[in-house]
Amino acid sequence: xxxxxxxxxxxxxxxxxxxxxxxxxxxxxxxxxxxxxxxxxxxxxxxxxxxxxxxxxxxxxxxxxxxxxxxxxxxxxxxxxxxxxxxxxxxxxxxxxxxxxxxxxxxxxxxxxxxxxxxxxxxxxxxxxxxxxxxxxxxxxxxxxxxxxxxxxxxxxxxxxxxxxxxxxxxx
Length: 172
What we know:
Radius of gyration: 21 Å
Structural class: alpha/beta
Number of strands: 9
Strand content: 25-35%
Distance between the termini: 61 Å
Shape: globular
């Protein structure tokens, strides 16, 4: 009986989605922007001002590699914890068990670092401080740690966070 209820519900949802009526060519889309807490590239905040992101800093040092792995041993970054110098880059490479991504929790990143780290992720992002999903072996994302002040920056794989797929980049 439960299956029939789900089938009826899915059918009704399909009919509602298809019953859009006449299309108007003058429709415009509204975009909501949360301006309650704004962080500028300099790390200052001001209400009602658009977010100013930094400019991507180039990698001026070594590019380190971290593998994104999912197998019988679990989901993990290899190595999970890595120490880099300011100006180095980290290239996360999808190996197995995807999809994987690299994401920094904005709550754990100092407000004065967030805009620069976000900019250093380039355009290969789903959202602020969150890289796109890597599905196929060999796909990667490289993030510059140029203009990132020394400190520890925890990161994780969004789909596998509950399975403990996380690590820390320490910038010296």
